[in-house]
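Private note to self, pasted from the team thread so I don't lose it. Backbone tokens:
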């Protein structure tokens, strides 16, 4: 039989018309390519997720670092003012333009019973440094009883940044603990 351009010569080991059922040629490498595509797609989704989460985390860390630098600035101002006063019998109230609110670096909602349930703790932050974790319920902030998230917000707002406050906390497991926190500055 004469070979033409339309009928190429069979490869060595293959005879023309032997072993074929008339269907398309079998491609054993196609399954590997499909698996490789799936792996590449999953890896791309994973990397994209990590980059998005890292970007959010970096922004949060940047905002917290800026807030902590403001706290350091207020502490330096307080140290300079204390050195200038000859007899520091009572601390002076903050100036009208110098009033800064305090923050614990947590997000809270009303608990099922009394207290404010912590749903998020900002890292780094005063609440994280004190040992608060998600699921804790704040019952007391200093000498103020906390019955709701609003009570906690009011108590934290009245607190002075940089001064230690004792928190009474009920953990998710049911145990009670007293923690010492130093509220930061809201920027």
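Design output:
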């Amino acid at each position: 039989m004469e070979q033409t351009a339309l009928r190429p010569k069979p490869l060595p080991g293959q005879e023309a018309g032997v072993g074929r059922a008339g269907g398309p040629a079998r491609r054993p490498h196609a399954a590997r390519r499909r698996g490789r595509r799936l792996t590449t797609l999953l890896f791309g989704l994973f990397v994209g997720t990590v980059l998005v989460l890292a970007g959010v985390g970096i922004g949060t860390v940047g905002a917290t670092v800026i807030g902590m630098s403001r706290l350091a600035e207020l502490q330096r101002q307080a140290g300079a003012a204390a050195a200038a006063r000859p007899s520091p019998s009572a601390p002076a109230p903050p100036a009208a333009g110098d009033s800064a609110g305090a923050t614990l670096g947590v997000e809270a909602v009303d608990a099922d019973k009394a207290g404010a349930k912590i749903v998020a703790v900002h890292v780094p932050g005063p609440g994280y440094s004190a040992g608060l974790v998600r699921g804790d319920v704040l019952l007391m902030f200093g000498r103020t009883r906390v019955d709701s998230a609003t009570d906690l917000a009011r108590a934290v707002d009245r607190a002075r940044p940089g001064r230690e406050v004792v928190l009474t906390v009920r953990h998710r497991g049911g145990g009670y603990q007293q923690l010492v926190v130093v509220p930061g500055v809201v920027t």
